[in-house]
From TrEMBL:
The keyword Lipid metabolism does not apply. This is D-alanyl-D-alanine carboxypeptidase DacF. It comes from the Bacteria. It comes from Aquimixticola soesokkakensis. The keyword Metal-binding does not apply. InterPro entries: Beta-lactam/transpept-like (IPR012338), Peptidase_S11 (IPR018044), Peptidase_S11_N (IPR001967). The lineage of its organism: Bacteria, Pseudomonadati, Pseudomonadota, Alphaproteobacteria, Rhodobacterales. The active site is at residues 71, 74, 131.
Amino acid sequence: MASSATAFGRLLGRLGRRIFPSNLLGLGAGLILCALPIALQAGEFASMVMDARSGQIYQEENADARVHPASLTKMMTLYIVFEAVEHGELSLDQEVTISANAAKEPPSKLGLSAGQKIKLRYLVRAAAVKSANDAATALGEAVSGSESAFAERMNRTAKLLGMTRTTFKNAHGLTREGHLSTARDMTNLGRHLFYDFPEYYNLFSRLTADAGVRQVGHSNARFLSNYAGADGIKTGYTSAAGWNLVASAQRGNERIITTVMGGRSSAARNAKVAELMDFGFRKAPSNVAVNKPARPPYMGRGTSATNEMLLAGAASKTIRMNLTVAASPIPQPRPGRAPEIAPEQEEILVAMSSDILVAVQAAQAQVAAEAAAANAQAAASAAAQLAQAQEAAKAQAIEEALENTTTARITSISPTPRPERIELAAVQQITAETGTQVAAIDPSGPEVVTRMSTSGGREWGIKIGTYNTQFAAEKELLTVALREMNTLSGALRKVTRGNRGWEANFVGLTQESADLACRKLVARGSDCAQFGPS
């Protein structure tokens, strides 16, 4: 479509020179352009600059204007795919059969054929790096069974993310009537991608990627290579949208997300993004509290929750949400194309969006409060068990002292060392079972040294900080271990005395698991440094 528009523009130029004298050529061209259909005119310019850590807005222009997002749409497609994989709807190694509908999508594309089978992970790479339209459509169909059903899920997820002025019609972003978004909504979506799925975020900075059938290059390689600290996120272009980009960059402690929509060329867009990025870094303080965006509740593939919200809202605006989802590792394809949402239903959804978000936030707050109460109770129980164990050990020591004394009158009993660090193992077992955290850890007693196994390449480790006391280092290790149980499974906690204090380390990791753990900890605002066998 872009090449057709370019050729059409050259044709208009030649036609204008024949019809209008040179001094009226500009006026004539303007009259012709006014008569063009909207699909061949560039979109309205819009922009936003945000501090990714706090969500603070440093600049905005037409940020709430509804414009064509083009391939920025694929950020939502990938967000839903990451969510589906996380909850077992799909597997990255699952083979997807390419439909005729996906195969016929126009460029940019991977060049897939109808009936071809390809792993989901390659479709993800093609959509994220090359911005392949056939890959994006295939991903949507793999999740929801059809393009229209996937668009429904995209809109449902967008509302839960607070994207109140966005409507999706397809998974790739090619121009379609009503397929619109805003610079504000796209900036917030980019921020959610960074914080909600840090394990996948590196995809958006790869200059090349293996897409199964071939290597593909990044659609935004020029900006990623030329702007210091840039590591994503997504480009977009159609003749209706102009040149779009949601970009993220990090310098020191600062991370800035910048969105530009409606650029007149890729070079002009990149220059504007760089200018706004520089402005953001000048405004951003070095140290600011990280305020991660609230992650929306998982809604799965079903539409029952949407229907229930519609019915409840029409009756009394009391919203009941059914969060029970029957997840399947392999999605069942739906026959045919699911019906579009009726216009009157879509209007009701938009009108109710604020009520829906309030209800979701209230439900999340209630769940968090109940979980906090349960955690406090379990922590108290664990602390009581620990205290009982310590009192029993002390009583045993006193009894042994009484038996061994040779004096009839006992003048004093010296306090005996507390038992070796069996308490830490007990606390670890209790907290692993209850999901709680116990702060009371005895800092005294000899250090337990465990020989680390180096089988299977587990010779790597990570350092999460240096602390003034051994107790503080052990407490932080235990806290991180409980919070990142999946990532640090099998790792050993080790505290060593260094020149600057007590160093808190996790050892016994593979290079891959150490890299993943550090990326997740850094994304959550924690310090982390890897070290290898040497």
